[in-house]
Amino acid sequence: MTSAPSLWAITRRSLIKDLRLEWRSKDAINSMLFFALLVVVIFSFGFDPTAEESRRIAGGLLWVAILFATVVALNQTWTRELRNQVLDAYRLSPAPPMALFLSKTVGNFIFVSILEVLMVPLFVVFYNLRSVGPLWQLLVVALLATWALVVNGTFFAALSIRTRSREIMLPLILFPISIPALLAMVDATTSILTGDSSPIFWIRLLAVYDLVFTTLGLILFEPVLNAE
Amino acid sequence: MKILFNVLVALTVVLLGYGFCQAIFIAPTEATMGDVQRIFYYHLPSAWVAFLLFFVNFLASIGYLVRRNLGADALALASAEVGVSFCTIVLLTGPIWARPIWGIWWTWDARLTSTLVLWLIYVSYLVLRRYATGGQVPVLAAALGIFGFVDVPIVYMAIRWFRTQHPQPVIGGGQGSGLDHRMWVAVLWNLAAFAMLALLFVWVRYRQALAEVALEEAHAQASLEAEETR
Amino acid sequence: MNASSNAYLYAAYIVVWVVHVLYAFTLLSRAKRMKREQRELR
């Protein structure tokens, strides 16, 4: 008689299943990557700054671009779940909804990180960016910021699948709530790039935001999942 | 109930009238800004009332998730709607006040910006309620209501820090600006008046929300019966 | 301040009352609509 699997085990299992599904349906990844590339290029056409200016605005442009790419990616993952009726399977299984939420969020986190790994070097090239501040700080900001976008994005993608005009509903609900995180990630990136000020407050704010909303998401996911 | 309601309506009208007198005639004219400053007596109480209403929405949302009773959901909807209405007033009167004083409509001032974000969050709440389908809209909305309110202190901290980094003129006086005692009196009278008005609006909207649910059920019942008699 | 800035004062107060009246109006028209529906159901 085996013991009931732990939360981590379930989370890991569904995460691996998700990643395998993603890998098999490579079209989703490829079209997302191309979309991300397009966003960067189009933004570059919009602005043609000097080196000094570019350091000041790149942070904002980069995170807005990533935000849009994230929304498109999030809409996709839930559409696929709906199509394959995976949600019903999860509701019937004894697995805790927290595991589903965690695995979805981590899966989306990985997915968006892949997009960032593509978009950031492109931004650096197009804007001839050179950071004044240390790169490891930028990495910390990127990790916290990506989680901030993805944790609420995953939760609200689940909310908005039951709405009409679903694709517009997700950003509509997600953006206002994400404003403080967006402000933090943009300002932190800018202050590191320009070296003008310390990003410490913003990094702390992002950490608090991540903690608060991950907790809320874990607690509230069950009633949301069980909604018809 | 109806008698109580009518009494409250009368009381509200009186309070609103007296608040108006306080604001326009009784309160002293502000030294630097002049009579335009009297907008403050409508601007600030509206902000407090809006915030209070969003707090009520937060409590009602939690209440609904815990108990799943329709009353909590109706209260959540009503308080969000009236809250957005008052919040809109704050966002309109702020710039109207700023324009003659600083010559600009908007300054990304910390408090006004936080109010804008608050407004956006609760408008998205109302949009979700209107466009989501299915019987579990109240659950989804409750989750959003909780997320939204928890976000409020984070929004405020973020924007305050942002403004410390990038200072701009402040609407409504900075941290240290004191108010003449008679001005506080005017603020409080109008606060009472607008709180009463909000209470009346919420009461009516709450009853209507409950009635809407009953009406939908009656419709469903009627079409069911029509099917059966066929 | 001069008299012209009082125009802003009037504008602000009018805006406040317009918003409240508009909201009251939405409440009234919803009440009317629901009464009509209730009558039709009978």
What is the overall pLDDT average of chain C? 89
Main sheet makeup of chain B? none
- Which sheet architecture does the biggest sheet of chain C show? none
Percentage of β-strand residues of chain C: under 5%
Structure in a nutshell:
The complex is a heterotrimer of chains A (228), B (230) and C (42). Chain B has six helices and no strands.
Question: Can you walk me through this structure?
Answer:
- The complex is a heterotrimer of chains A (228), B (230) and C (42).
- Chain A has helices at residues 7-24, 26-46, 51-83, 86-92, 97-127, 135-160, 166-194, 200-225.
- Chain A has 228 residues and is mainly α.
- In chain A, helix 3 (51-83) packs antiparallel against helix 5.
- Chain A is globular and about 55 Å long.
- Chain B is mostly helical and 230 residues long.
- Chain B is built from 6 helices and no strands.
- Chain B starts with a helix and ends with a helix.
- By secondary structure, chain C is mainly alpha-helical.
- Chain C is rod-shaped, with a radius of gyration of 18 Å.
- Chain C has one domain (1-42).
- The model of chain C has no long low-confidence stretch (mean pLDDT 89).
- The interface between A and B is medium-sized, with 34 and 32 residues.
Keywords:
heterotrimer, A: about 230 residues, mainly alpha, 8 helices, globular, B: about 230 residues, 6 helices, about 80% helix
What's the layout of helices and strands?
The complex is a heterotrimer of chains A (228), B (230) and C (42).
Chain A: H1 7-24, H2 26-46, H3 51-83, H4 86-92, H5 97-127, H6 135-160, H7 166-194, H8 200-225
Helix pairs in contact in A: 1-5, 2-3, 2-5, 3-5, 3-6, 3-7, 5-6, 5-8, 6-7, 6-8, 7-8
Chain B: H1 2-26, H2 40-67, H3 70-102, H4 110-131, H5 137-165, H6 181-229
Helix pairs in contact in B: 1-6, 2-3, 2-5, 2-6, 3-4, 3-6, 4-5
Chain C: H1 4-41
